[in-house]
Each structure stands twice: as structure tokens, then as C-alpha cells.
Specification:
heterodimer; A: 564 residues; alpha/beta; six-stranded antiparallel sheet; 20 strands; disordered N terminus; B: 199 residues; mainly alpha
Chain lengths: 564, 199
Amino acid sequence: MPDEEILEEGVLSPVEPEIQDPLLRALMADEPAPAAAPVATPLEQPQAVPAEADEVDCLVIGLGAGGAPLLARLAMAGLKVMALEAGPWHNPTTDFATDEKAQDFLFWNDERLAAGADPLAMGKNNSGTGVGGSTLHYTAYTPRPLPDDLHVRRDFGQGEDWPVSYEELEPYYNEVERFIGVSGPTPYPWGPARSQGYPMAPLPLNSAAQLMVRGAEKMGIKTSPAANAALSARYYQDGVGWREACTNRGFCQAGCSNGAKSSMDVTYIPLAVKHGAVIQPNSFVTEIERDERGRVTGVVYTHNGEQKRQRCRNLFLCGGSVETPRLLLLNELGLSSGQVGRNLMAHPGLQVWGTFADEVRPNKGIPGGLISQDTHRPAGADFVGGYLLQSIGVMPVTFAGQVARGRKYWGQQLRDYMKNFNHIAGINILGDCLPHADNFLELAEEKDGRGLPKPRLHFTAQENEQRMNAHAEKIMRGIWEAAGATDIWSFQRYAHVIGTARMGLSGDDAVVDANGRVFDVPNLYISDNSTFPSALSVNPALTIMALSLRTADKFLESQQRRDG
Amino acid sequence: MSVPTYPSGTVRALLATEHVSEATRAVLESRLNAPAAYEPQLLAPETFALLEAVAARIFPQPDRPENPIALAPAVDQRLAEGRADGWRYDALPPDREAMRLGLGGIDEIAQELFQAEFMALSAEQQDAALQALADGNPPGAAWETLDAGRFFEELLAELAENYYAHPLAQEEIGYVGMADLPAWTKIGLNERDEREPGE
């Protein structure tokens, strides 16, 4: 056990798990000891860890799309920065096998409880761990929101508006796309003209994308090769070096073994390290300490079974929309608005699958090759907002799990259907979602392996999401019929958890301000998808990165004002 | 459209080539060469035998009478190590408890429908018992507290994912995505790289 006197005078800390040491707790509770890290982590400790007494200017918790860009920006400004990441630091070449089961370690596998009428699948569906966070297994689909995504309330009278405009975000989208290397169409067919095109041509269309072109043309729906954060050509990245082009492995929902996918571990993290950021993997934060004035003074975390403390002048929570609100709730921080854990949204991600006479071989090529945003604000729609359409490839284990859950096939029927794997292709949507009082995150009574309460996520698709799904299913079935599919079926799902510590103009109804600063705590910031006031009708990763850079810039401006 | 079939031996042959990375080969070979005998680590021997019997009906393998792909060991191992997949239906109790209750409940269905233990039933009777479970409203006291539909969904999904993670099951559906080096160059409709098997 570490020193029991770890808590200093003047430090208030409400979190006191019964037994701090997980091994001891496991023995006491007669549970199996927590499993060791599933893979060797050769890059684990490349840098000296500062002694506990050292205070850093900025401490970043979580190294996904929310934490990594900001870490690099703050390090480049000359600040003393450090990041604590719950998961390990992987070596893509030796750790990233082309095998779905063997990649399970990329997902946040601590149990979350899924409640409500449409329980949210977690784990591989939407959460990651490791240096790079869930970008290690994101599909790399990186469309920008369209400007009106940011003011749904103004346009429809429901949902929430963002306190940040598209115009303010646009330079950050330009910067992120250029730096990490997004391949996409120029000009982009939907939305206003852009001040900058994509730095690379789109990736080649795979079979599913070609089939969607075929069906959509007959339906009069416009399509385009999609924007994907994977390199269609060898690419030179400032501060990082050359990265190799995509080899069409199609394995993007797990780790990319050649670095072509623009995950944080091959983009912003090496940039941050080059500029002096210290990265501490395998570090799970449990407590946020503060002084009598309510300012954060540091955190307590567990590193390889040992409890440590890190002191900081400013803290940035970037743990995602489950772990960030969980930390706030556990530590009773930033709760005055009553909005922490509320406004939980999830993107309708309805999929439609079909069998084709053509050979598809759906495992090859970037999975989301094609996009249509013709359904962004469909004429005559009976719902608020809209959605995008996307072609999808798939890997066998993921597909089998979905067939089991979605079609309830078992026995010989399941084996026979799966033999059509090489003739199957899918389309799906990514749609906006409205906040609702029934959808929220809370701490459960049930404890996890660390003795901390498990998060429970309540989600029930409301009328708006149901109407959107019905609209989308009709269109996707139409496209697939027009493309020649038989045995068409749909799989209802929801992806990405959003909104559990939302951004707003006032601390009365929001947790953070437009710059990501927590209203209640002057030196605490949040940078991840928990701050989104609305869900947007596009995948969140690109916007998380853009907001991360903006939060860093606003923080640096405020420091200059203070020092100047 | 007839169901495609693929030549056997494809995956083993590819594993020996440079089209498969070291990391990928290690994982797939360990699955291919898993010892046939398995000593359950968590479930009692008779409970494990019941799980094996259930798995044998959910994934019947009449084409592999000697060496079926074993599906129960990975479930027992996961439960023994306390591993989760990141989430659980709030309606279900913790995984170990759900498995014990659910397997007991399957025996109850067998008793209610056929007045015998599940393992003593014919294949057709076992299928009927599992169908009652899959339909979500089976007889038996266990199912008054355990959500039958969710339990069956979880069990089925786990077995399906374990089955299609096996190289021979992947070969059966014509998947050779593990042989992805140095690149796939033919990714469009009706295109095939040379190393991909035809139907």
C-alpha cells in the first residue's frame, strides 16, 4: 500500500473506495485478481515519470481524440504537460494482429450497465482504451458537420444550439484534416464552399460502395466518395515524418498495423512527445483533489497496481462521455447545474444488409467508402434534424454477432446464412439525436473491480429517433433493392455516447462554457464528446479533435491575459 | 442463389506464407492447435457438459464429427478470469450468475417440456427446448427472474463470435482477410486477389 498519509492538509477528497489496493481487495472479496495487461507494451515507459512532488502546468486525463490534439498544442506552447492514459501504449506492428478477437484489448472492457428500452452496446461499439483512445479502433469516417447541425433548436425549436458557430470551428477542421491526413473529395458536394480542400484524394471504392452507387443512382440519390482519416497516398506530417498509404486491409474497426489510419498514436501523440509532453500509460485516475477554494490541485491514480498522485495547475478531463461524467460524479465536481450525466444522446446507426449475386468480399477496403448527405434535411420529413447514408464493409466475427442479435438465427440456419459472407454488403445511417429526460448516465450501486460504482446508461429511442429510423430504413431498403440485393434485413443500433457534460452559455443549464472550462471550477476543463450540446448528424471524432485544439487555444489566450 | 462453398485447406496454406503477419499467425495457430481436452476452470463439470451440449445444438457441426470446433471452453475461461466485453444488459445479473441460472433454466425447460434433463433429450427435443428459450417465454421458475430473451441473445452472440473467430469457420465462409500482406489490390465488385479462394 502506498503511504496512507497521501492526503494533505487542505485537500478535500470525497472518494474513498473501501480498499485501495486492487490485489488486496480481490483477496478480501474472494474475487479473481484483476487480469494483467493483455499484451506486452514495449513502448510503455519511454520517458522518465516526474516525481510525485513535481507539479505540471497541465495534466490531461485520457489520450483519445479529445486529449491528444490539446496535449500537443499545450506542449508546443512550451508548457510543462503530462498525460495519464488508462490503457497501455501499443506497438502497432507487433500488437495489432488481423484478428477481431485478438484485438479485444482496444476496447474499454470494464463493465457498463445498459438500461432503458434501447440499451446501448458499449465495449467495441463505442469506447476505447490505450494511448490513442477509441481512435485506435474508429472506422476513421470523418465527415464535417454541416453548419446547421450546430443550431437545431433555432431551426426546429427542439434540442440545443451550440455556443460555438461553424465559422469559428472551420479553421480547426482545416487544420485537423491537413495535419492528420484526411482523404476525401474536393470540392465537397454538400454544405457551403470550403476554404480548403482535403489534402488527399479519396480512398478507392470497395464493393459495398460500388453497390451503393448503383442503387442510389437509380433512386436519384447523390453519392460521393467519403472523407476518411486514412491515407490514400504516402504522406508527410510535420513533426512526425512520413506515413505509409492504406493497404486496403479493411480492418479499421481494430488497430491499423501500418499507421495509415490517422489515429492519435501516429499523429498528435508523437507531435506532443516531440515537444516534451510526458505520457504515462496504464494510469487510471480515481480522485481529483482540490483546495479549500475549490481549485483542482492534482489527481490520485493507480499505475500498475500502485497508487500515485500527480499535482497540476490545470486539469483537462478527456476520458469520453462515460468516464468523464463518472469522474465528476465520483468526485462531486462541477455538479451545480445538475446536468452532469444528463442529456445522454446516441446516434441512430440503423444498418440494412443484403445478399448480392455479385462477389462482394466485404472485408476489403476502407469500410465506409461512400457517403450521401442528401438526407441531411429531407423534404417532408416528420422528424427534427437528419442523417447521412454510408456504405459499410464488415468483418466476420462482428457480422456473426450482429446476425445472432439482429436476426436471431441459430443452428444450421445461422451457419447457412453466414456462408453468404462474400456476397453481403450493407448501408447504414448516422443520425442526429435529441436529448431527453429519460436518457442519462448515473452511478450504480454495483461496484467494479476497482471498488468504484459502475456507470449505468439509460437510453430509450424517442419518437424523433424512431421516425428517423423508419424514414431511413425505407430509403436504404429502396437503394439495396435497386442495387439488386435479396434477403434484405435491418439491424437497429445506436453508436457513440454524447452529451453527458454539456457545453452552454450559462452554468445554470450547462457544465462547461464554450471554451470547455467547467463553470464551477476555474482550472478544470473538459475536452471530449461529453460536451457536445447536440449530437450532430455526423460521426463525432473530427469535431472532438477540432474542439480540442480550440479549447487549447482559448486556454492559452486566457493564460496570456492573466500573465500579460 | 446457391450457398457458396470454398476449398478446404486454404487457411492453413495461407498461414505458412508471408501474406500473414507474425502477430496474426500466432493468434490463429493457437486457435487451430488448441488441445481437444479441456478442464473447466469455473463451471462445475456437469454444468460445463450442459453448456457443451447446448453449444452443440446452437452450432451443430455434422461435418466435423471427429473434431468439432470447441465453443464452450472460451466461455468458461472468460467467466473464470472475470473478463467482460464492456457492457451488460441491466436486466441481467452479473455474467457468472446469469450463466449458472440460465443453464439451470435450460434444464428446467427440458423437464417441463419432456420430463427429462436436457442432456438426455434427442437432438430434435433439445432444439425444441432451445427454441422455447429463443422465443423468450419458456416454462420454468428460473425464467421468472432471468430475462430469457436477453440471456439467449447474449449466449448466442458469444458462441457465434467464438465460432467465427476460428480459422476453419472463417475458411468455411470464404474469408481470408487474415492474409492481408502486403495489401489487397482488387477490392471492387467481382474482383479477387490471386490468393483469395474461388467458390
